[in-house]
């Protein structure tokens, strides 16, 4: 929805373009140029166009200059005013990918192609398992001084990755979480309860295996950091661990075997899926 800016213009907080994202910069620049050319071809000045679509003149210049990522409502209104027959609105299919940071987009693309995913997390609940409120609380305490706009963008990016749960055929997903990540009341008691309830729901999906690593389990291979292993339909695999190979992704069979062995050991030491569900239920019952 459009909002009135301090100078009286009707503007909308859009998404800023990440200058380090070459592909994203090119996409936004191309869409902006197309919008400008269509506006000029229609004989409309920027101020008149801004008034017609219900947004500030400053935003129009930023979008056409490739400095601001347009929202779908902006594109739809521009399409209508310029009589583009859906061609402008259709650019949202490319634009919507740019709104997410490049590193998040790359991760989401890998997850979207995986047929198997195994993850151990020791410091926080894995992004694929987080509620929007829990994710926002984590970003807010990161001391990165995010604006509300940036927070919205980061949370939306994290939630978009959860489309992996809606894929058909469903991928096999395995998660091992340290007990402490479930006890830490990120965002306060209410957000914490909602997060645990969400975990109960996700953990009972047929394609999901969820396990808790008890704090009193002793030393295990995950103490050096997060471990993630993805397998793909073509037989290829990709793994990464904070505590191995300098944290870089690996695909060589000998390297993957090390990560798979570590993850298998972690799963063997963790509570069983049934015991893990019971553990979460007990946590909820304690409040």
Mind explaining what this structure looks like?
This protein has 287 residues and is α/β, with parallel strands linked by helices. It is 48% helix and 14% strand. The strands form three sheets. Strands 7-6-5-8-9 form a five-stranded mixed β-sheet. It has a two-stranded antiparallel ribbon with strand order 1-2. A two-stranded antiparallel ribbon has the order 3-4. The two termini are 39 Å apart. 30% of the residues are buried. Mean pLDDT is 88; it is low at 1-13.
Helix and strand sequence: EEEHHHEHHHEHHEHHEEEHH
First CA to last CA: what distance?
39 Å
- Main sheet properties: 5 strands, mixed
| Count of alpha/pi helices | 12
Shape descriptor reads elongated
Which strand-content bin applies to the residues? 5-15%
Low-confidence stretches: 1-13
Whole-angstrom Rg: 23 Å
For the biggest β-sheet, the strand order reads 7-6-5-8-9
Please count the beta strands (DSSP E, at least 2 residues each). Answer: 9
| Rounded average pLDDT | 88
Derived from helix and strand composition plus strand pairing, the structural class reads: alpha/beta
Helix content: 40-55%
Any chance you could write out the topology, listing elements then pairs?
Blueprint: E1 3-4, E2 10-11, E3 15-16, H1 22-41, H2 46-53, H3 57-64, E4 68-69, H4 72-82, H5 92-98, H6 102-113, E5 114-121, H7 132-140, H8 148-160, E6 172-178, H9 179-183, H10 189-203, E7 208-213, E8 227-232, E9 237-241, H11 253-269, H12 273-285
Parallel strand pairs: 5-6, 6-7
Antiparallel strand pairs: 1-2, 3-4, 5-8, 8-9
Helix pairs in contact: 1-5, 2-3, 7-8, 10-12
């Amino acid at each position: 929805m459009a909002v009135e800016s301090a100078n009286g213009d009707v503007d909308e907080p859009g998404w800023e373009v990440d200058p380090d994202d070459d592909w994203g910069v090119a996409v936004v620049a191309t869409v902006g140029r197309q919008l400008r050319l269509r506006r000029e071809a229609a004989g409309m000045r920027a101020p008149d166009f801004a008034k017609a679509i219900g947004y500030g003149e400053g935003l129009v210049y930023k979008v056409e200059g490739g400095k601001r990522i347009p929202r779908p409502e902006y594109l739809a209104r521009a399409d209508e005013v310029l009589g583009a027959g859906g061609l402008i609105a259709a650019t949202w299919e490319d634009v919507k990918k740019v709104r997410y940071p490049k590193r998040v987009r790359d991760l989401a693309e890998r997850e979207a192609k995986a047929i198997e995913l195994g993850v151990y997390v020791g410091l926080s609940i894995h992004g694929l398992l987080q509620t929007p409120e829990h994710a926002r609380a984590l970003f807010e305490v990161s001391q990165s001084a995010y604006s509300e706009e940036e927070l919205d963008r980061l949370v939306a990016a994290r939630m978009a990755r959860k489309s992996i749960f809606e894929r058909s055929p469903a991928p096999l997903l395995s998660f091992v979480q340290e007990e402490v990540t479930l006890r830490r009341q990120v965002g306060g008691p209410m957000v914490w309860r909602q997060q645990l309830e969400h975990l109960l729901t996700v953990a009972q999906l047929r394609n999901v295996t969820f396990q808790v690593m008890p704090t009193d389990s002793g030393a295990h291979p995950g103490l050096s950091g997060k471990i993630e292993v993805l397998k793909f339909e073509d037989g290829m695999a990709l793994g990464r661990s904070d505590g191995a190979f300098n944290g870089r992704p690996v695909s060589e069979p000998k390297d993957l075997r090390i990560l798979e062995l570590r993850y298998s050991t972690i799963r063997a030491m963790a509570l069983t899926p049934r015991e893990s569900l019971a553990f979460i239920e007990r946590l909820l019952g304690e409040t």
